[in-house]
Amino acid sequence: MTAELAEQPEDWTEPGAYPVVAGVHRVPLPLPLTGLRAVNVYVVDGPEGPTLVDSGWAGADAGLLTEGLRRLGHDLSDVARIAVTHSHHDHYTQALAIRATHGTPVLLGRGERHSVAAMARRPDSEAAQAGLLVRAGAPELAAEMALRSKAEALADDAPWGEPDIWLDDGQALPVGGRALEVRATPGHTRGHIVLRDSGIGALFAGDHVLPHITPSIGYEWAPEPAPLQSYLDSLRLVRDLPDTLLLPAHGPVTRSVHTRIDELLDHHEERLAAALAQVRSGAETACAVAAGLPWTRRRKRLEDLETEHAALAVLEIAAHLDVLVAAEQLVCAEVDGVRRYAVA
C-alpha cells in the first residue's frame, strides 16, 4: 500500500509546513553548508504529541522549526520524541538542543555509538579521514583536511552527546496508531537507519536514498572498514521491501523508493567499471583513479573541487576500489603506508 502524496511546492527548500501524507508534514530548514541548501524535518502526528524524524542543525534558523510546528498547532514543548536517522550535525544537533531545553527524548540508531563517542573527543583527536587520505595516496589533501577538521572542531559550539534511546534493527517505534519500523542501513554512516511506515506506504529515508544526489560514503569520525559494500547491501535490502513513497532528508518527496534505488545502484556500477578501467590504464592509488574521473554534474576535474569535496571524491573511489578487491577483480598491497592497486 502506498499513500496518496499531497501536492508539494516546486521549490522543496521553501520554508513552511507541508502536508505529505495523512498525519505527516514536512518542514524544510536551511543549512549553513555549501551544496546542501536545506534538510527536511518530518512531523508525524500522535496523541501524545508529534514525533520528529530528524531535527536540523542546532542554531541554524531554529525559529523556522518553531514556526512550522506552530502552523500545525504545536510548540516545541509538545514534541513527544525525536527519531534521528544518523549523527551528522544537520540531523542530530538540533535534537540535542531541543532536549536541553524541553527534556525531549532523542532516539538514534545503535550503530552510531562509535561516531558519537569519537565526536565527543574532538578537538583532541584527528578525524579518521586524514589517515584514510594518506593511505589513498593524497598526503597534501590529508594535511589540508586535518587542519580543516581541527579548526572546525575548535569553532563548533553545537551540542553533543548520546541519545536517550538507542534504536535497533527491526524494532517497531509506535507513533499514535502507526508503527515506524527501524531498518539499519549502514553506508552513509555506519549506524544510519531508515524508518518505514508500511501502513501508509512511506519511507523516512534520511540520507540513505536521496532523489537528486548520491550520499557520501563513510564520511564520519569512526567509519567502518567497507562502507560502500555496506551501502550497496543496504540499498538492496530496502529494494527487496515493497515499494513506498520516498521521504528524503534532502530533496523533494517522490513517489517511488525503488525507482531511485535502481538509479543509485546503476550509478555505482558505472563508477566501479570506471574505476576498474582507470587501474587497467595504470592508475595505482585511489587519488590517481579519482584524478582520472569526472566529478559532479558539471564533470569537474578533481583538482578543481573544493578541499572537502575533493577529499570526499578520493575516499569514495577508495571505497569503490576496495569493493573491486573484495570481488577479486583487483589486488591491493600497502607500500610505505599507501594502498596500491593492480588488476587481479
Describe the structure.
The structure is a single chain. By secondary structure, this protein is α/β, with parallel strands linked by helices. It folds into two domains: 18-125 and 160-264, Ribonuclease Z/Hydroxyacylglutathione hydrolase-like (Metallo-beta-lactamase, Chain A), CATH 3.60.15.10; 130-152 and 274-343, no CATH class. The chain has nine helices and 14 strands. It has helices spanning 62-71, 89-102, 113-120, 128-135, 139-155, 227-239, 257-280, 286-291, 307-326; strands at 18-21, 24-30, 38-44, 51-53, 81-84, 106-109, 165-167, 172-175, 178-184, 193-197, 202-206, 245-248, 330-335, 338-343. A seven-stranded mixed sheet has the order 1-2-3-4-5-6-7, covered by helices on one side. Strand 9 (178-184) and strand 10 (193-197) form a beta hairpin.
Write the layout of secondary structure elements.
Layout: E1 18-21, E2 24-30, E3 38-44, E4 51-53, H1 62-71, E5 81-84, H2 89-102, E6 106-109, H3 113-120, H4 128-135, H5 139-155, E7 165-167, E8 172-175, E9 178-184, E10 193-197, E11 202-206, H6 227-239, E12 245-248, H7 257-280, H8 286-291, H9 307-326, E13 330-335, E14 338-343
Helix pairs in contact: 4-5, 5-9, 6-7, 7-9
